[in-house]
Amino acid sequence: MTVSQVEHDVDVQVKEINKNKNTLFGILSTELGEAQRQFKTNRIHQKVNAKGNPISALNKWIDEADLKSKTEFNNISEIEKEINEINNKINLLDTCLSGISTVNFKNLRSILAKVIIKPKTNLSQTVIKWLEQGMKLHNLNPNNSKEKEKCLFCGNEFDVNKTTTNILSIISSEYSDALNDLEYAENRINSIIDNRNCQIFCVNRFFS
Question: Is pLDDT of 1 > 60?
Fold first, then answer.
């Protein structure tokens, strides 16, 4: 093999290495842009000298992700596979966070910290719920201008204003409102716990 052939082979290998480095840097830049978009911030910055040494930059990102073992990559396919796995974990986490965001924990803490006196009524929360549903079905509210309505359950007529006032005096209380808020929060939290994606994320996060 002549010197010129060796130089040619070396030149080809250098070009291939630079091509792969540019490809990896492009992937890192794309993922960084996606992370900035998802987290709605520009405070996430690329690693120093990522363009010149993208392999080092990728390993730094992996170390910061608190992975238990450092992965050694041999080619672009392995890198893309790892990125896909990370994206799957991000999607699982996003599902969990979306569910958690529906729970107003600030309001929940406020309710739990407040001393609320239970009204002197023998009505259970189940009966109160039934009355609330009945009001919705019959459109009973202070803005209802009708004098009489026909009960959808028994068929008898009743005084709209009087019935509305009487029911509201029972169900519209701080205690009842607090119970409704707590029940809603409980249902939301249970739905998050029962969510298959959140279960998968927790297993992957704590046991993998």
Answer: no
- The percentage of the chain sitting over the pLDDT mark of 90, rounded to a whole number, equals 0
Structure-token pair, residue 79: 């890198």
**Rounded CA separation 124/126 (Å):** 5
Q: How far is CA 144 from CA 125, 134, 186, in A?
A: 25, 14, 33
DSSP letter (8 states) at residue 47: P
DSSP annotation of 70? P
d(CA 208, CA 204): 5
**Per residue in 73-91, pLDDT tens?**
677 777 788 888 888 777 7
pTM: 0.36
Q: Answer for the pair 35, 44: CB distance below 8 angstroms, yes or no.
A: yes
**Which residue is associated with the tokens 């119970």?**
179
| CA–CA distance, 130 with 125 (Å, rounded to integer) | 9
Alpha helices (H) in the chain, listed in sequence order: 3-39, 54-64, 76-100, 105-113, 125-137, 160-171, 174-194, 196-207
Tokens of 123: 């009505």
3-state secondary structure (DSSP) of residue 17:
helix
Give the burial string for 58-92 (b: 16+ CB within 10 Å, else e): bbebbeeeeeeeeeebeeeeebeeebeeeeebbeb
For the stretch 7-27, pLDDT in tens is: 666 777 778 777 888 888 888
Whether residue 61 contacts residue 47, with contact meaning beta carbons closer than 8 Å, is answered with yes
